[in-house]
Amino acid sequence: EVQLVESGGGSVQAGGSLRLSCSVSEFDFNERPIGWFRQAPGKEREGVACISRREGTTYYADSVKGRFTISSDSAVNTVYLQMNSLKPEDTAVYYCAADTSPHGSWMCTIPAASIDYWGQGTRVTVSS
Fold this sequence. Notes:
The protein is 0% helix and 48% strand. With 128 residues, it is mainly beta. Strands 2, 4, 5, 6, 9, 10 and 11 form a seven-stranded mixed β-sheet that branches. A hairpin with a 4-residue loop joins strand 7 (68-73) and strand 8. The relative contact order is 0.31.
């Protein structure tokens, strides 16, 4: 059974940093894409950063380019999202997501309803 368990969320002031972690079980992210989505109150879930180790590609939403970095460590089966220069508009629940589709890192752009696996989410609150 695939399990994605997020951690690292919290409250931070604008300009601060957080690192989210996603512990991955029974999913080979060396072969399939994995990434981070977020959902703010009253908004749809959106892809933030995705990675395809197989293709050697990453995808970032325009709103986070230059501030967020996705990485993965297969030795500890963990995917990370380093978030720097956080803004109040980054406030959301962040979800780790994994998919078996052939989209690669473009997984971030497909409808959330099409994603195969989700974590439970971790809340990030950025205050001004």
